[in-house]
Amino acid sequence: MAYQLKVKYFNSFVLKKVVKTGDVQTGSWPGLPWAPTAVGTDGISRSYPNFPWGAYATGAEEYVNWYLEESRIKGGFNNTIMELGVRAYAVNKNPAQDDRSSSLIFSGVYNDRTGVNNTNVFSISESIIRDANPSHGSIQKLYAQNTNLLVLQENKVHKALIDKNTIYSGDQGAEELLGNPRTIGQLVPYAGEYGISRNPESFAIYSNRKYFADKDRNAMLRLSAGPGGGDGITEISMYGMRDYFRDELATISDNRTRRVINITSGMGGGSTSTLTLNNVIGIEVGAIVEEVNSTPTTLPTGSVVVGIPSSTTVTISPAYVVTANLVSFNFVTYRRDKIYGGWDIHRKNYIASLQQSSRFISTAEDSFNTLSFDENAKGWTSFYSYKPIFLGSLKNKFYTFINDEIYEHYVSIGNNHCKFYGNATPDEASVELIFNPSPSIKKNFNTISYEGDNGWEVESIVSSKQGVDNGVSYQDAANPIKSYDEGSYIENGVTYQAGFDRKENRYVANIVNASSVRPGEVIFGKSVSGIKGYFATVKIKVDSTTNVGGAKELYLASSNYVMSSY
């Protein structure tokens, strides 16, 4: 039987159907600013509009599935009809997903002065896509510089012109007229088959210089360009570190490493979304929760960590159904290797951290290499013992981030040198030098000296290898040399120096040979002064007792040598 409703005015009405799921209304009622409550015959209170009038009854969908809406403003006779308005309509003959990772798409203009904001407008009637060569891989990084856009693909670097195009003449034709430029104009490639691989996190900028890594070509790169030109892309890994980066960048993988933390939870029965654990340090938000012993728990599909872990609890979703007091869980995360890059404004250095596994996976010394490139020295000057997840500069300060903490570097407050992320390593600062004057002459290195502060010691001195005899490679080695303070001792009231001695504010010491005896050798070891070879490798480090954690500067190190007599 039809339902009849008398209306007060002779107006136009629109009859609409409300989407519903079963007997329970879901979502909002379109076009109505209110949702009055009606109690059904089942005693359940539900919100429905007033039309049509009547009590809700289960199964009587004609009472709840339709409603009326006036189409004239204010309901007045012959008033303006409310129209549907403009609706977007486009026919897509290919509705399948199209992966265009090497293309750029742009929206309408945004102008805050005139109030124009068309950033949500993507007109299919206009050409709003700029395609890069897909053979160069996906676009990994965009950087706006002046009136150009730097586009870094996996295997190529381009400069995209903004609101302008390069003009061609003659038979070459013109891509577009100057009076009708594109938002993103022509892509102009930089010379050299270099890209940023799949490591956009390695990108850093200072002034007109950009630094990034191309691990696919075992190269660390610098892009230098400005209004007056520049030297384009330079392979800065060639500055004395070619072999090193060839080996280390090859270990950076795109595969994700599985990290598992197993923790036993003490819980009672029932449903819970908060796990009370003994220790949740190291568990990340977004970690996948896996059950280890399936008997005491019912594991919802796709459970993940959604709450920020504390030292005792972690929140997950969906909730677990627990039937035992002790439940063992695996918290699993997947991380890929990274090459983090940043600019150290304090030292004017590019810092690169090559991480064979994420910091969330491991902080072991063999899982990363953090080092710096100095433009003035044109070389890689230092290795560091910290492993960040982000790094950058602000004004005159350099910061790195780990987990949810931020650290400021070069803070000279107290004895905190060689201290990263709260871990003091005051005796691990070292410098490795190669003494190689007159490379083609075999030399005897007799003494070593340095200019700088007290507190430096020589950990090792070795000469170049001298060939292989019967499977054995020989090279000279010297005894370690103690620092000025640690090598000082008193005998019969007289102070002697067993390590470095200070002469005219310069620290000097003899090199005492400590090589093992060789076949046919008559004099060896402590009876021989110095070491013999084409060059000598010296490792100088700070000692563990002199002004621990304080500043120690090393300006210069040198060795006295004589030409070998045979």
User: What's the total count of β strands?
Assistant: 47
State Rg. 36 Å
Tally of helical segments? 1
Structural class by SSE content: mainly beta
Number of domains: 5
Which whole number gives the mean pLDDT? 79
Low-confidence stretches: 20-36, 48-63, 169-181
The percent of residues in helical segments reads: under 10%
The major beta sheet can be summarized as: 5 strands, antiparallel
Overall spatial form: elongated
Percentage beta strand: 35-45%
Distance between the terminal alpha carbons, to the nearest Å?
121 Å
Oligomer: single chain
Task: From the structure above, extract its key features.
566 residues; mainly beta; 5 domains; five-stranded antiparallel beta sheet; four-stranded antiparallel beta sheet; 1 helix; 42% strand
Could you give the topology of this structure?
Blueprint: E1 13-17, E2 20-21, E3 24-25, E4 37-39, E5 45-47, E6 66-70, E7 103-105, E8 110-111, E9 116-117, E10 129-131, E11 139-145, E12 148-153, E13 157-162, E14 184-189, E15 204-206, E16 209-214, E17 219-226, E18 229-235, H1 242-249, E19 256-266, E20 270-276, E21 288-291, E22 297-298, E23 304-305, E24 313-322, E25 326-336, E26 338-344, E27 349-355, E28 368-374, E29 379-384, E30 390-394, E31 397-402, E32 405-408, E33 419-420, E34 423-424, E35 430-435, E36 443-452, E37 456-463, E38 468-469, E39 472-473, E40 477-478, E41 488-491, E42 494-497, E43 501-503, E44 506-510, E45 531-533, E46 536-542, E47 554-563
Antiparallel strand pairs: 1-6, 2-3, 4-5, 7-10, 8-9, 11-12, 12-13, 13-14, 15-16, 16-17, 17-18, 19-25, 20-24, 21-25, 22-24, 23-24, 26-27, 27-28, 28-29, 30-31, 31-32, 33-34, 35-46, 36-44, 36-45, 36-47, 37-40, 37-46, 38-39, 41-42, 43-44
